[in-house]
């Protein structure tokens, strides 16, 4: 898959999710052992690594127990032979307490051949942690 083909596929994926919430296209583009991770500490519906197509489908199914998407904006797509990065922002509302917050995000896609093997979403979801009463994650302690 060329760089342009990767970007075209990701544009289609984000268009489907942004317009209807449909993740079918994403699931079709994943390796069987793909990993999906969001940069949020433990204790929320979005925490941890979601592995395989079923696990990742479960993430998107359960995501709405923590947040509701009010707006999703995609700004830029960058790619090379093995990775792609998509930049954007979103406005979310927590399902507990109804807190509305804005966050910018970067999603890093790692490819194995023509399929996505790893997705890392980097964004500040501290408002979700706070709404759920989950303490903010601390960096791991340094070992001597």
Automatic annotation (TrEMBL):
InterPro entries tied to this protein: NTF2-like_dom_sf (IPR032710), SnoaL-like (IPR037401)
The organism's place on the tree of life at top rank: Bacteria
Stretches assigned to coiled coil: none
Chain ranges of the SnoaL-like domain: 11-118
Name used for this protein in its record: SnoaL-like domain-containing protein
